[in-house]
Design brief:
By secondary structure, the protein is an alpha+beta fold. Helix content is 25%, strand content 24%. It has five helices and seven strands, in the order βααββαβαβαββ. It has helices spanning 21-30, 54-66, 99-104, 128-142, 170-175; strands at 12-15, 71-77, 80-88, 112-119, 146-150, 179-184, 188-195. It has a seven-stranded mixed sheet with strand order 1-2-3-4-5-7-6, with helices on both faces. The longest helix has 15 residues, at 128-142.
């Protein structure tokens, strides 16, 4: 696919929902189901609950979206979805990476989690992830705000292939005003930001 040049200010954000499902599905299908057919379901379920099929993951994601149990800020270029930031309450997204390590250090669970980003390959390195993050935080603010956690990679300047950066980087979240809390796993950390309610 040919690279598309965009101006981040011209991109729009809409919430993932029944009315944006087709645009979301089109983005995922353009990228072969994303991460080997995950359909952005990994964080929703514990390992034993997954079907481990692309079709099963697609059906699960559609069901969760239509039941209001899957949330994301979708970035649009016109009518085409070109990226997302998935967010939700911990009960909606229980299956974070390094969960055992994370839970050993939890004092109080957050109100929301940011678990993954995905950007259309044609739109990468043009600020789409920043637009997705801002959109997710705005949607959280509209829902009442609260403490938001993220679990990014700590790259320490190392070049990491995009397929491993589903949670983006510590630097990315620091630039967005998140505070580093603690390490989890070998190369990840917990970061947090309090989002005020909208209005």
């Amino acid at each position: 696919m040919a690279k598309v040049t965009v101006v981040a200010g011209e991109l729009g954000v809409r919430a993932l929902g029944a009315e944006t499902w087709d645009a979301f599905a089109d983005l995922v299908e353009r990228h072969n189901g994303v991460w080997g057919g995950c359909w952005c379901t990994w964080f929703h379920t514990m390992h034993a609950e997954k079907t481990h099929t692309v079709e099963g993951n697609r059906a699960l994601k559609e069901q969760l979206v239509k039941e209001g149990r899957a949330h994301a800020a979708l970035v649009f270029d016109g009518d085409v979805a070109v990226g997302w930031c998935q967010y939700g309450v911990p009960a909606e997204l229980p299956n974070i990476k390094h969960r055992k390590d994370y839970e050993a250090g939890v004092v109080e669970p957050p109100d929301y989690r940011l678990t993954c980003f995905f950007i259309d390959t044609r739109y990468r390195r043009q600020g789409v992830a920043e637009v997705a993050l801002r959109g997710a935080l705005e949607l959280i603010a509209r829902a009442g705000g609260g403490v938001v956690e993220a679990y990014p990679q700590v790259t320490d300047g190392r070049k990491i292939t995009a397929s491993f950066l589903y949670s983006v980087t510590r630097n990315f979240f620091e630039e967005a005003g998140f505070t580093y809390l603690r390490p989890i796993g070998k190369n990840h950390c917990v970061m947090s930001k309090t989002v005020a309610p909208a209005g």
